[in-house]
């Protein structure tokens, strides 16, 4: 009924000048928006590649294949390979708890999962130094047992886990809530086991928002700077990730090399954006429904 | 209701896995987020009241906090204005490259902050592409608090666009049509009918942008110049205290930052729910 009304009315009404901006205003608004985006978003991206390539392709290739850069690349990939799967499992557990059950303190749990978004990355690093650093609460015990956490891989993994903690659950919760639990209830009623239901019903149902969450989580895990800078100790070739390598080179006035390493991360960002856009285009309806309900 | 009372903590459900998934999320949350944050407050409190007051009221701490919160506020305001404009343009108009621009708005989410930091510094330095223009008038952007604001606008912009965009897209066009039929000018319809509906979403975007900008470190430290009392942000002061092995000092500045931003966020959320109620949302 309401559909019919809007269909019959919207066409002629939209031509009225009181319903739209004049072409001049429209051009002005589009122009201002695009200029702002060009200055604040596109130029920074362009200048990364310009600066990286300013001394030619050979210098560029040398800068990104230099041993320290390669070890930074390996460490960055390793950290993401550890953090992302853990956060996926935790994120799925969190969203299953929140989207499928009603219990006391649910809103509090949602807020706590989101908490890392409003904590400075530097503080995310600091808290682990206070716990596991040489002067930290567990420092003496760890030293006695020869376990290294700060200035080593475990510290970097923990700090990265903290800053990427909410990403997967954030995407999954609204999607699971939208879908409801009828599919799972049907599977269970028909005799499927718990894990069959999970792997054959739940996981395929939410796969696109899960992928979306993984993508964002991975981009942040590979690009995190502040939290990792605090716990890593920046030992060259050992505990420097790619973003830290950018800082080290930049502070040593190796501008071109810094931008060359930065261009790898910028490239990663572009791939992330492209993958994200493809996901959104293909599953626009599903994701729109999910956004709408969040 | 009686079921709820009987089971107490959880409402019954035929779905399995509550114990396992609840256990996993609570364990992870406690180990990764809650206990470490508790350690921070424990460390800060262990310094004793006189030292806490001395550090909290030292001019350098106050200057750093003022810069972090002040620059974040200005950046969130600028992002809100331009973010609303960008969302409007993306939802209401069609132009060449529309899809590309829409996708590119998320760049600050995907680009590592250190990369953004050195790129913005190169752009806004006195001899950079954008910095030469204000430099002619004797205005420096990079290595001043203005540079901090520029970096924070970069990181906070997409929060506003992505909060406002779906609400603008969902907005019922019939209220605009009603306003037009009743004789309102376009300007009056936009400011009297459309924007009030977008207001809660804009406030959400502002809050997310503000919260993100307060704690920002990576993109800021390259462009700020990091002069104590002038362009030193609070997260940098924490790092400096840490490098001096002043753990209590670092913890106190961090605790102050967290408390101040949570108080602010709670205030904004209160305004938010009040304005939602006023507009008839639940």
What are the SSEs and their pairings?
The complex is a heterodimer of chains A (294) and B (282).
Chain A: H1 2-14, H2 23-52, H3 56-65, H4 67-100, H5 106-114, H6 121-132, H7 139-144, H8 153-164, H9 167-179, H10 182-189, H11 194-205, H12 207-223, H13 226-232, H14 242-251, H15 255-282, H16 284-293
Chain B: H1 2-7, H2 18-45, H3 49-56, H4 59-92, H5 98-104, H6 107-110, H7 113-124, H8 132-135, H9 145-170, H10 173-181, H11 186-214, H12 218-224, H13 234-243, H14 247-278
Task: Put the structure in a nutshell.
The complex is a heterodimer of chains A (294) and B (282). Chain A has 294 residues and is mainly alpha-helical.
What does this protein structure show overall?
The complex is a heterodimer of chains A (294) and B (282). Chain A is mainly alpha-helical and 294 residues long. Chain A folds into two domains: 20-52; 56-293, MetI-like fold (Orthogonal Bundle). Chain A has helices at 2-14, 23-52, 56-65, 67-100, 106-114, 121-132, 139-144, 153-164, 167-179, 182-189, 194-205, 207-223, 226-232, 242-251, 255-282, 284-293. In chain A, helix 4 (67-100) packs across helix 8 (153-164) and helix 6 packs parallel to helix 13. The longest helix of chain A is centred in the first third of the chain and has 34 residues, at 67-100. The two termini of chain A are 27 Å apart. Mean pLDDT of chain A is 89; it is low at 1-16. Chain B has 282 residues and is mainly alpha-helical. Chain B folds into two domains: 14-45, no CATH class; 50-278, MetI-like fold (Orthogonal Bundle), CATH 1.10.3720.10. Chain B has 14 helices and no strands. Chain B has helices at residues 2-7, 18-45, 49-56, 59-92, 98-104, 107-110, 113-124, 132-135, 145-170, 173-181, 186-214, 218-224, 234-243, 247-278. In chain B, helix 7 (113-124) crosses helix 9. At the A-B interface, helix 1, helix 2, helix 4, helix 5 and helix 6 of A face helix 2, helix 4, helix 5, helix 6 and helix 7 of B.
